[in-house]
Design goal:
There is one protein chain. With about 220 residues, the chain is mainly β. It folds into 2 domains: about 5-130 and about 180-215, Translation factors (Elongation Factor Tu (Ef-tu), domain 3, Beta Barrel), CATH 2.40.30; about 130-175, no CATH class. It has 3 helices and 12 strands, in the order βββαβαββββαββββ. Strand 10 and strand 11 (about 195-200) form a beta hairpin.
Length: about 220
């Protein structure tokens, strides 16, 4: 308690991007690997926060464009200070040290290198209202005729004692549409001309959804 966390745990520079889709490419050892293509940045810096003034170090970055008429007066005034108009999405990235960037600077995919490890944050696809078989992978009942119990939840209580449903009982309900982070994905290729990052594996969300790409907080070998 009270110890300074390792450097690998501190969030470093990050980019906001858009999930394009999945494909396959050959890596440096001529192996065919599945990758997710992410269009990341460019992300202009809209605000710089320092520990002396704000209590912590951080960068606020923006992504995508939005019409001026769709912005509130507060958003217009905030973006006017950084001379960045019409940004559709803003995100704050906390840093361990005082940021070198200034308001108006633009971050792009050159922040990341090939073979680097990154974390991807996104929102999973919405699945609507689902039963326990699909939502929690429960076994269900017999599939034969006459059982009258196939994909239902089954018993959820204990009769007279304690006489109520236990907390955290798996029940039917809304599935998906939640924030998820996939850690330690390997960067296979960075295309600075097209602002693309190819990471090995899959990431949350549907094609076209916004995601955040950040340098990995922790890796399997304990190094950033």
């Amino acid at each position: 308690m009270g110890e300074t966390p390792p450097t690998a745990w501190i969030m470093k520079l990050a980019l906001i991007g858009k999930k394009i889709g999945m494909t396959q490419v050959y890596d440096g050892e001529s192996r065919l690997v599945p990758v997710t293509v992410i269009e990341a940045g460019p992300c202009p810096v809209t605000q710089v926060k320092t520990s002396d003034r704000d209590g912590y170090n951080a960068l606020q970055i923006g992504y995508t464009s939005r019409k001026e008429k769709n912005l509130s007066n507060g958003e217009k005034g905030h973006l006017k200070k950084s001379k960045q108009a019409g940004l559709g999405f803003l995100k704050e990235v906390r840093l361990k040290e005082l940021p070198e960037q200034k308001e108006g600077d633009v971050l792009d995919v050159s922040l990341f290198a090939d073979d680097a490890k990154v974390d991807i944050i996104g929102v999973t696809k919405g699945r609507g209202f689902q039963g326990v078989v699909k939502r929690f992978k429960t076994k269900g009942g017999p599939a034969s005729h006459g059982s009258m119990f196939h994909r239902r939840i089954g018993s959820i209580g204990q009769c007279q004692y304690p006489g109520h449903v236990n907390k955290n009982q798996k029940m039917p309900g809304h599935m998906g549409g939640v924030r998820r982070t996939v850690q330690n994905l390997k960067v296979i290729k960075v295309d600075t001309e097209k602002n693309l990052i190819l990471v090995r594996g899959c990431i949350p969300g549907a094609n076209g959804d916004l995601v955040m790409v950040r340098s990995a907080k922790k890796t399997r070998n304990g190094k950033s």
